[in-house]
From TrEMBL:
Belongs to the glycosyl hydrolase 63 family. It comes from Balaeniceps rex. Its main location: endoplasmic reticulum. This is Mannosyl-oligosaccharide glucosidase. One of its GO terms (cellular component) is endoplasmic reticulum membrane.
Length: 224
């Protein structure tokens, strides 16, 4: 069979509940992850969708809304809300990994704040033209108060979309400290440096924005 053509741009989400042993990195709800449940609550296939994922006491809700505009199918925004179900205080730290990857075609340009927070990615892709992906700062669930978070950033040559989880897993280090004002200091795992995976030459690029925080919180991403 002929291989499907590479997608010009693949955005996605991974998450990690920070635990002493590192926890387990989740990505796109693979069956083997043993998630309690996941699935679309509602969507119309095109303009909006709401998905809920339950993972060991963590509830993740992802919502996307497409807005008309642009020459290539419109802009959209994507909101991820995380909360814990019946867990004591303080809640375990949660890391959300928002990424965008190319598989051979297209260009990606990172825009960093303070050398650690990936605020936006601009780029070009054959079918999309020029685009901007913006990572907004997390808010409390009410959507108004800013939420304290630690930020980490990874830029790597990608050996292909099928190995992105391995790329991220191999880049994690627990040398980082979460230090909210007036709160306990905690070590956590974050993307640090990627040394490359054996066996596959790089085909594209991966840019990844890691947000580490205490749920509940909401993070929004816009695509223009």
């Amino acid at each position: 069979e002929a291989e499907p053509p590479p997608l010009p741009l693949s955005p996605g989400l991974m998450w990690l509940q920070q635990r002493d042993g590192g926890g387990s990195l989740r990505h796109t709800c693979e069956q083997s992850d043993g998630l309690s449940r996941y699935g679309w609550l509602m969507h119309d296939g095109e303009n909006f969708g709401v998905q809920e994922i339950e993972d060991e006491g963590l509830l993740l809700k992802t919502e996307f809304v497409k807005r008309p505009g642009g020459e290539h199918g419109g802009d959209w925004s994507w909101r991820v809300t995380a909360r814990m179900k019946g867990v004591g205080s303080p809640a375990p730290l949660l890391s959300l990994f928002f990424y965008v990857a190319t598989d051979g075609q297209g260009t990606l340009q990172p825009h960093l704040e303070n050398r650690t927070r990936l605020a936006a990615v601009t780029g070009t892709a054959e079918e999309l033209g020029r685009f901007t992906l913006t990572f907004l700062r997390p808010t409390a669930e009410s959507g108004e108060d800013p939420k304290y978070a630690s930020y980490n950033y990874l830029e790597a040559a990608s050996p292909g979309l099928h190995r992105l989880t391995e790329v991220v897993r191999s880049s994690l280090s627990n040398r980082f400290v979460f230090a909210p004002p007036g709160g306990p200091r905690r070590r956590f795992f974050a993307v640090d440096a990627f040394q490359g995976l054996p066996g596959e030459p790089p085909r594209g690029r991966l840019l990844l924005h890691q947000v580490t925080l205490e749920p509940p919180a909401t993070v929004e991403v816009t695509f223009e």
